[in-house]
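Narrative of activities, Objective 1.

The group set out to show that a structural description can be obtained from nothing but a protein's sequence at a throughput compatible with the screening campaign. Below is one input-output pair from the validation batch, recorded exactly as produced.
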Amino acid sequence: MTSDLPYRPCAGAMMMNRDGLVFVGQRIDTTLEAWQMPQGGIDPGEDARAAAIRELGEETGVAPRHLDLIAEAPEELTYDLPPELIGKVWKGRYRGQRQRWFLFRFTGTDDDIDIRTAHPEFRAWRWAAPAELPDMIVPFKRALYEQVLAAFSDRLG
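Output recorded for this entry:
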């Protein structure tokens, strides 16, 4: 039963450039035309903000010196995997994710972004308007992205 499975602890990062646009990457491991913001698991003993910064580095190549923390979502946000993915991702140990979200200002240039990292997760990347985000993500994460936007609405253009 899926309700018996825990949520995977995770950190998410909304990285906004000087123009108020948000970094999104197109995942390598899917044939879907879905784009997402960087996110990933929090390691045991790791602080959620440190995990978000680490994930940004691992997925975008962006160094911490190019990030200024603007805000942290006031509460954890969760999403459930669709039934067909439960048991197939994360070795079947989780029903979805509980995430801490952070909004960062990207102070570098596009040349400071390199998705060809040691363990690439994205095949392409681009800047997107915040309002576009819910329509770009896989459908089962749409409500989560709407909650992220609501959490940061006073900081977005």
